[in-house]
Amino acid sequence: MHALRAALADLVLGVRCAGCEAPGRALCDTCRSEIGHRAAVRIPDPAPSALRRPTPVVPMSLTPYAGVVVPVLHAYKEEPRTALAAPLGGLLADAVEAAIGRCTGEEDPHAAGPVRLVPVPSRRSAVRARGFDAGAALARSAAADLRRRGLPARAAPVLRVGRIADQAGLTAADRARNLAGAYRLRRPLGAGLVVVTDDVLTTGASAAEAVRVLTEAGSRPVAVVTVAATRRRLGRAGDGSGSR
Q1: What CA–CA distance (Å, rounded) separates 162 from 154?
Q2: Which pLDDT score, from 0 to 100, does residue 171 have?
Q3: Cα–Cα dist 115/227, whole Å
Q4: What SS3 state is found at 161?
Q5: Residue 4 in domain
Q6: Is there a contact between 76 and 126 (Cβ–Cβ < 8 Å)?
Q7: Helix 85-104 vs helix 69-78: angle between axes, to the nearest 10 degrees?
Q8: The pLDDT value given to residue 60
Q9: Which is nearest to 206 in space by CA: 119, 120, 117, 116?
Q10: Would you call 174 helix, strand, or coil by DSSP?
């Protein structure tokens, strides 16, 4: 129902930018450029142990969760304006390329071979309320964009989530307890580099649970890649987070 109302609004009012309300596109060039800063490693502090052991998992995002990216991601997930999946997927693809280059040491990320983008799973109640799976749609869009660039990428929504409380307002410790054991693997992953994807990295609890489950199944991710990362948890000096 929400998705239908959003589509009708765009039909009646015309497509408008989710960041600045300029007519013509779901995300205008100016707002896209503001979100698409140079991708950087932004590490939650404290970093969940699943992102550190047995091997480091690089947390890469395009921008701090501030400014224009906030209304854009809200519009995508909560209105919901599903047309934003394409431009946001392109931005996520930029960050995936940067993460792969950093993790593999390859100047050309296309040399890394096949890539599997595993979205952090959404609660079933959230999917029903929105009318679509925002995380899976974002991963599919990013994978399609990467394939157009010549990188053999596929979205792999292989995780499912059990009954958990809403994460909003929970502390880092509460989020970790809420998610402990919450994810399950639907099916094994094929060969390739595994990258966990999401829209925003906050405390890292959701990403860490996804990494834990995949690691136990023998598919240790090399990176967690998001469009944005919250600024309220700052990385320590010298960790390269850029989230200040």
Answers
A1: 24
A2: 57
A3: 18
A4: strand
A5: no
A6: no
A7: 120
A8: 96
A9: 120
A10: helix
Identify whether 223 is part of a domain.
Answer: yes
Q: How far, in Å, CA of 211 to CA of 218, rounded?
A: 11
Residue range(s) defining the domain that contains residue 162: 36-229
**How buried is residue 71: exposed, middle or buried, by Cβ count under 10 Å (0-12/13-18/19+)?**
middle
Classified as helix, coil or strand, 83 is: helix
Residue written as tokens 């994460």? 167
CATH number at residue 179: 3.40.50
The C-alpha R_g of the chain, in whole angstroms, comes to 17
Pure H helices in the chain:
2-13, 29-35, 69-78, 85-104, 124-130, 134-148, 172-179, 205-216
29 occurs within a structural domain: no
Residue 37 has a pLDDT of 78
Residue position matching structure tokens 């990188």? 151
Q: How many CA atoms lie within 13 A of 183 on its CB side?
A: 26
Q: Indicate whether 242 belongs to any domain.
A: no
Return d(Cα 202, Cα 181) in angstroms, integer: 19
> What is the Cα–Cα distance from 113 to 234, expressed in whole angstroms?
33
Number of domains the chain contains: 1
| Residue 147, number of CB atoms within 10 A of its CB | 14
pLDDT, averaged in runs of 10, over the chain (244 residues): 47 77 94 91 90 94 95 95 96 96 78 90 86 96 96 95 61 59 85 95 92 94 96 43 30
In order of 30, 64, 163, 192, 238, the CA distances from 155 in angstroms are 28, 24, 24, 12, 33
